[in-house]
# Entry
Amino acid sequence: MKVRVDSEACVGHGRCYEIASAVFGDDARGHCVILTPEVAKEHHVATRKAEANCPERAIVIEEE
# Structure
């Protein structure tokens, strides 16, 4: 699984890095940054939950 974020859509709610802190972090403005674009299997569930909880739908998961 790969993950990316649409930085123009993200407004910094922070749900992603609260739910999946191993995959998502925040920049100086509180907007999402991807820490690991190739998501380890043990973080798949949390990554999908973060995607589902993003109000702007800024998180995109690419299944391999």
Observations:
- The longest strand covers residues 2-5.
- The longest helix spans residues 44-52.
- The mean pLDDT is 96.
